[in-house]
Design goal:
Distance between the termini: 53 Å
Structural class: mainly beta
Mean pLDDT: 87
Oligomer: single chain
Helix content: under 10%
Largest sheet: 11 strands, antiparallel
Number of helices: 3
Length: about 425
C-alpha cells in the first residue's frame, strides 16, 4: 500500500516577495493506496462444528465461506491549495480528490438452500470525485469585539463503475440484495428507482379510457378506482410506451446525493460576552419517505399500522384531495415506490448555539470572601432550528436497512431532539 505526497510553498519563492498581502500559499498533491479487510478473521473459510441430529452426533456448517474474498483496495489522488492573506485575516483551502475503490466488500444474499442468509463478497468497483472549499475569516478584530467565521462547502459525485459478473443481471443491475435500493453499473450510487406519479384519478371515465387504449385491457391495475394514484407509462420491453404500467416503467425518480453540503460557524466576543453558532446544510438531495407510503395506505393489519394525520385528508368524492383513498388491502398498490413519496430534503440546521458570560476580575472581587477566581454562566442549545421543505420528521434521515444501497430512505427513525442546557462554572 504505497503512498506519496509533495508540496510547493509558492509564497516562499522570490517572485512573491512583493506580494505583501500573501502570508502563505502552498500547492499540495498526494497519491496512495489503502486496503480494507475489516470483516473478521477466517471469514473466507467454510467452518464446521459438532452438533446432534435426531439424537445422533453430527457435523454442521457454522460459517459459509467465500474463498474468492479478497482485500478491498482504494486508490486516491488529491490536489489542493492552501492560503492565508492579509496578515492571516483570511485563510482556507481548496481541494480536489478522486477515489477509486476496487473489489468493494458488501454482504450479498445467498440462496435459502445454503442455510445462510448472506455472505461477504467483492461486489464491484466505485469512483468518488469531489471538491472541498474551506474559508476562515477574522471579520472584526479589536480590543473589545472580535468576530470570526468559518465556511466549508463540499461536493461529491460517485459512480458504480463495475459490477462483478456474479452480482449483475443482463441489464447491468446489481442482484443478490434485499429491498432498499437499486444499483446499476455505470450509474451513481444513491439513485432512487420507482414509478413516476402523474396525478390522482378523480373519476371512473379516465380510468376506463386508459384501459380501453391498453393492449391488455388494463392500464395500471384491474382494481384501480377514483382516489388512486396514476403512474406514468414510460416504456415497454422495447423502450416504447405500450399502454401498460409494469416493472419496465420504473425509472430514476430521485437522487440522494446533494449538489453541495457543508457547515457554517460563527463566533463573537464582546468583552466578557461570547456567542457562537454552528449550522449544517445540504442542498439538492432527495429523500424517499419510505414510511409515508405505509402510513397513508391500508395494506393490512398488525404491527406498523399506525397512520399519519394525512389520512384525515384522504380522497373522497366530496373531498378530491391529493391524498390516496382509504381502502383495505391497497388494491391499486398506491404504496409502491414512486415519486409521490420522494421529496426535496434540502435543509439548513442550527446544530449548536452557545451563549456565555465570563465575569471579570472586578466583578469577582465584589463577592469578597468567597475567593472566586473565575466564573462563567452559559446557555447551550442543540438542534434548535431546522429550515426545510421536507415533510418528514428529519431531513437528515440516513437509510432504511443500515447499508449504502438503501441510503436516502426515511423509515421514520426517531428525530433529533432539541436540547437546552443552562449552567454555571466556578473556579476557586
Amino acid at each position: 500500500f504505497p503512498a506519496a505526497s509533495a508540496g510547493w510553498r509558492i509564497s516562499k519563492e522570490r517572485f512573491m516577495e512583493d506580494a505583501d498581502f500573501v502570508n502563505e500559499l502552498k500547492l499540495r498533491a498526494s497519491w496512495g493506496i489503502t486496503g480494507q479487510q475489516d470483516f473478521g478473521p477466517y471469514i473466507w473459510r467454510t467452518l464446521y462444528t459438532t452438533s446432534d441430529y435426531a439424537g445422533d452426533p453430527s457435523i454442521v456448517i457454522s460459517q459459509l465461506g467465500n474463498d474468492r474474498l479478497k482485500w478491498e483496495k482504494t486508490k486516491q489522488f488529491d490536489l489542493g491549495v492552501d492560503f492565508s492573506f492579509f496578515d492571516y485575516r483570511l485563510s482556507g483551502g481548496l481541494g480536489y480528490y478522486q477515489k477509486d475503490t476496487e473489489d468493494a466488500i458488501f454482504s450479498a444474499i445467498t440462496p435459502g438452500n445454503t442455510g445462510f442468509s448472506s455472505v461477504l463478497a467483492n461486489v464491484g468497483n466505485t469512483r468518488n470525485v469531489g471538491l472541498e472549499l474551506e474559508l476562515m475569516g477574522d471579520i472584526i478584530q479589536s480590543t473589545d469585539f472580535n468576530w470570526r467565521m468559518t465556511l466549508n462547502v463540499s461536493r461529491n459525485s460517485n459512480k458504480l463503475t463495475k459490477i462483478n459478473d456474479d452480482f449483475k443481471d443482463d441489464r447491468g443491475y446489481v442482484t443478490g440484495f434485499g429491498s432498499g435500493g437499486t444499483l446499476r453499473e455505470g450509474s451513481p450510487i444513491g439513485l432512487i428507482y420507482g414509478y413516476v406519479f402523474e396525478k390522482m384519478f378523480d373519476n371512473a371515465d379516465e380510468i376506463q379510457a386508459l384501459n380501453a387504449a391498453s393492449p391488455t385491457g388494463v392500464y395500471q391495475n384491474a382494481a384501480t378506482s377514483p382516489g388512486d394514484l396514476m403512474f406514468r407509462d414510460v416504456s415497454g420491453p422495447d423502450g416504447v410506451p405500450d399502454g401498460v404500467v409494469n416493472t419496465f416503467d420504473q425509472q430514476i425518480i430521485g437522487d440522494v446525493q446533494p449538489d453541495f453540503f457543508g457547515g457554517l460557524s460563527s463566533s463573537m466576543r464582546y468583552k466578557g460576552l461570547t456567542l457562537s453558532a454552528f449550522f449544517t446544510y445540504a442542498v439538492g438531495n432527495d429523500l424517499e419517505w419510505f414510511q409515508q407510503s405505509r402510513s397513508i395506505n391500508i395494506s393490512g393489519t398488525g404491527v406498523g399500522e399506525n397512520k399519519l394525520t394525512q389520512i384525515l385528508d384522504a380522497w373522497t368524492p366530496e373531498n378530491p384531495s391529493d391524498k390516496p383513498r382509504l381502502v383495505y388491502g391497497d388494491p391499486n398498490q398506491n404504496s409502491r415506490i414512486s415519486s409521490y413519496y420522494v421529496h426535496d430534503a434540502s435543509y439548513i440546521r442550527l446544530k449548536n448555539l452557545n451563549i456565555g458570560y465570563n465575569f471579570n476580575r472586578n466583578q469577582l472581587e465584589r463577592l469578597g470572601k468567597l475567593n472566586i477566581k473565575e466564573a462563567t454562566i452559559y446557555l447551550s442549545a442543540q438542534n434548535l432550528l431546522t429550515l426545510t421543505k421536507y415533510p418528514g420528521a428529519d431531513p437528515e434521515a440516513a437509510n432504511l436497512f443500515n447499508n449504502d444501497i438503501s441510503t436516502g430512505r426515511d423509515n421514520n427513525k426517531f428525530p433529533v431532539a432539541k436540547v437546552l442546557t443552562v449552567g454555571l462554572k466556578v473556579g476557586f
